Backbone:
């Protein structure tokens, strides 16, 4: 059972209506669905919102079964091996396993498995996130930039300039990358790619520049200090974290919210004299798929399959910059025959090609897209 | 005179007795009648609607057997009511992307499961429910693994809540961009969810005193994860397997997702596999690199939980304007209001972009952390309008103006934009998305 101080929420039977109303309702005139700014332990809610205690068998408008719900003990205890297999998060307090990898190895892996989406040296492209914009410490200074005027530069939010913890990078590379073939990198490979990321973000560890010869291991990894570590609010670390978050959201000004006595809200002449209508600039964004229509008719018969259109919607994100339609680079891939190219495309490859590019094309249609990619027509 | 199947000839007002007898004889003789036939051809005049004067084409032949469509599908005529996407909102491909809900076509406060917005970070996973395992571990007195059947044996609750991506409206900090309700506000949907409160499961497991945070981790390609504070876990966070009376759709995390009522949609981790309780937060990618709101001070808000009070006019909309409206026509201006911090208590409507407001009326069910419908009956005066709605909730919040919100946060926050929204209605009933700035 919970310790008493954990009892933010306890069984309905323990609450009396009298205690509830003594605590007072916030903003509501109705007693039918009381809402409170505080939990039953007396602390204000953590998000600045309200809490709906169970009163007379109801939470807000919902009836609840007020019988004890203790004693449900389904499931089994996981084995030590099962816990080890799944408990793989890497956090500031839960470091990565032992291992090591060099910037050089990282670059090699990057060129094999990452460049087609993240671009040369992490420059981004095809809509995938850029991994660097040069020197991390310098870039971090851009976070106060505001594009509130047309010619202003925006803030740089990449790994080096923005992320507060390096643990996030290690964890994410291993759990979520490479995107089409996740959870396929070894610990050493993950260290190598992490080292490469530090290198292209021009970062240092413990005063030592992560240059092309750098070899990263766990000990060095734990010394990484991210330039923007202190760039976030509220505090979420340590034993006071929950109360720090609570205090933060108790002040609407911190997060751009406004509280008002409903009786005193502005109903007349609310605007400045300088108020003006701002319209969408140019055509705005309207490349909607499919285009917006509210017509009620029967769907048109599907036309003949168009490999170029299928390429545009399924493949162009990566293949516009890598093995693009008609590119001579294809020569290096067609040597084992077209059937091998088809098979690799349909089944996917470790090199990063997802099966059928993640599309749901039929094999026949997919092959005609491959033909288009190779020939460019 | 040929009468067979020609609607034109049937409408020809040729009602001599012989001709009519001839007509019925002939039509009966050809058996099946594909085109409409007259109900009372002798009374047809040019002012009559042929759709009323004639049998409709689906009215005289057998319809589908009940054995067709063992799982029903919408009318073929509704084929344009779809989730839509745009390349702007894709991280490279359409696996790390979002498809948004056509809320201009939405009715009531429930989104049909097939139209519920879909956001994933590594594509929609297709989980075999027989291979589903949920591990709950860390700072609990008893760690467990559950199968799906075991999870579903816990006492269930059913609740109606919206789920909103905190980037809803987030493309418009620097000015309006989407002339579309679907894209301006459709990064959200609402459903009636069925599942178990996590606090119910914890009755058996017991939390250790240092359990301050809970990691929720998905089993999908991206292993999407988020850290949830224990306060919310012990309030109303749920593990849900039911969506509008049926199993979750794959796009919503089949077979089980986390539901964190009112909070950012990405916290409602789909295809869930693991809950770990811990003294310290986890610094997942999607709570550091993304889903943090950079303020103009250069500091970013992290762990930005609740979607604040918000509203929009849904009728009219840029997609469904007041075509052909005339002075004196009665119209119902309708909209949605919602708050992740509580229950909607009121909505004001302005016809001049937020300078003067009148009170609109709430209608239907008014539920906590739920879409709430509002309405205002209006007689069209033929003048251009700037329709702005402004909602309030029982936590005491009211929507800020665009100026107020940008004044505090700047324009680079991406997430949690809830400043009032304005539709410009032109004299010919067209609707444009605009903002009022000073």
Residues:
């Amino acid at each position: 059972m919970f310790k008493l101080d954990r009892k933010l929420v306890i069984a309905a039977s323990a609450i009396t209506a009298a205690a509830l109303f003594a605590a007072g309702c916030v903003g509501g005139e109705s007693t039918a669905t009381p809402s409170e700014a505080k939990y039953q332990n007396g602390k204000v809610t953590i998000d600045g919102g309200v809490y709906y205690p169970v009163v007379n068998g109801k939470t807000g408008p919902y009836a609840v079964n007020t019988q004890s719900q203790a004693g449900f003990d389904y499931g089994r205890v996981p084995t030590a091996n099962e816990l080890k297999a799944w408990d793989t998060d890497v956090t500031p307090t839960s470091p990565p396993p032992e291992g090591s990898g060099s910037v050089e190895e990282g670059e090699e892996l990057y060129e094999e498995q990452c460049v087609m989406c993240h671009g040369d040296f992490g420059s981004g492209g095809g809509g995938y996130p850029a991994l660097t914009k040069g020197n991390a410490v310098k870039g971090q200074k851009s976070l106060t930039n505001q594009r509130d005027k047309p010619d202003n530069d925006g803030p740089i939010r990449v790994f080096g300039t923005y992320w507060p913890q390096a643990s996030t990078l290690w964890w994410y590379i291993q759990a979520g990358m490479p995107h089409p073939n996740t959870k396929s990198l070894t610990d050493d490979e993950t260290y190598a790619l992490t080292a490469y990321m530090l290198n292209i973000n021009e970062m240092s560890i413990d005063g030592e520049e992560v240059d092309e010869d750098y070899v990263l291991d766990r000990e060095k990894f734990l010394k990484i200090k991210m330039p923007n570590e202190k760039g976030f609010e509220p505090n979420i670390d340590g034993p006071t974290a929950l109360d720090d978050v609570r205090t933060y959201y108790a002040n609407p000004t911190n997060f751009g919210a406004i509280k008002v006595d409903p009786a005193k809200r502005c109903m007349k002449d609310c605007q400045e004299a300088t108020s003006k209508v701002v319209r969408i600039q140019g055509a705005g964004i309207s490349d909607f798929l499919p285009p917006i229509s509210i017509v009620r008719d029967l769907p048109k018969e599907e036309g003949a399959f168009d490999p170029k259109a299928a390429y545009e919607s399924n493949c162009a994100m990566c293949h516009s910059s890598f093995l693009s339609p008609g590119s001579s680079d294809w020569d290096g891939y067609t040597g084992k025959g077209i059937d091998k190219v088809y098979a690799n495309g349909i089944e996917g490859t470790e090199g990063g090609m997802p099966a059928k590019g993640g599309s749901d094309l039929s094999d026949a249609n997919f092959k005609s897209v491959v033909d288009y990619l190779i020939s460019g027509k | 005179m040929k009468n067979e199947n020609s609607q034109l000839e049937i409408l020809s007002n040729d009602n001599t007795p012989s001709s009519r007898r001839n007509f019925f004889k002939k039509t009966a003789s050809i058996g099946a009648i594909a085109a409409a036939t007259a109900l009372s051809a002798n009374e047809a005049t040019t002012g009559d609607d042929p759709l009323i004067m004639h049998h409709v084409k689906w009215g005289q032949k057998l319809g589908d057997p009940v054995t067709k469509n063992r799982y029903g599908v919408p009318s073929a005529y509704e084929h344009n009511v779809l989730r839509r996407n745009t390349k702007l909102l894709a991280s490279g491909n359409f696996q790390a992307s979002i498809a948004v809900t056509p809320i201009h076509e939405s009715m009531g406060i429930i989104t049909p499961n097939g139209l519920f917005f879909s956001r994933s970070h590594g594509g929609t996973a297709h989980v075999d429910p027989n291979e589903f395992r949920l591990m709950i571990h860390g700072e609990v007195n008893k760690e467990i693994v559950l199968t799906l059947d075991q999870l579903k044996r816990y006492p269930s609750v059913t609740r109606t809540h919206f789920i909103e991506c905190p980037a809803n409206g987030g493309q418009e900090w620097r000015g309006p961009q989407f002339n579309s309700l679907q894209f301006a506000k459709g990064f959200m949907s609402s459903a009636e969810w069925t599942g178990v409160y996590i606090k119910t499961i914890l009755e058996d497991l017991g939390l250790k005193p240092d359990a301050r945070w809970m990691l929720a981790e998905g089993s999908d390609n991206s292993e999407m994860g988020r850290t949830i504070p224990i306060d919310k876990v012990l309030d109303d966070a749920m593990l849900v397997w039911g969506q509008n009376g049926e199993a979750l759709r794959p796009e919503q995390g089949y077979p089980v997702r986390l539901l964190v009522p009112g909070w950012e949609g990405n916290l409602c981790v789909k295809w869930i596999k693991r809950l770990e309780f811990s003294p310290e937060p986890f610094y997942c990618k999607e709570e550091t690199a993304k889903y943090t709101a950079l303020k103009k001070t250069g500091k970013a808000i992290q762990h930005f939980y609740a979607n604040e009070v918000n509203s929009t006019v849904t009728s009219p909309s840029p997609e469904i304007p007041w075509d052909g409206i005339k002075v004196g026509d009665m119209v119902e201006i309708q909209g949605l209001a919602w708050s992740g911090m509580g229950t909607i208590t009121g909505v004001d409507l302005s016809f001049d972009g937020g300078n003067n407001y009148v009170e609109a009326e709430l209608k239907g069910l008014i539920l906590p952390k739920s879409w709430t419908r509002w309405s205002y009956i209006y007689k069209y005066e033929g003048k251009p309008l700037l329709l702005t709605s402004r909602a309030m909730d029982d936590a005491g919040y009211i929507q800020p103006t665009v100026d107020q919100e940008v004044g505090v946060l700047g324009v680079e926050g991406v997430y949690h934009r809830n400043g009032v929204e304005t539709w410009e209605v032109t004299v010919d009933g067209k609707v444009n998305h605009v903002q009022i700035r000073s």
User: Anything to note?
Assistant: The first helix of chain A runs from residue 17 to 23. Chain A has 14 helices and eleven strands. Chain A touches chain B through 134 residues (CB under 8 Å).
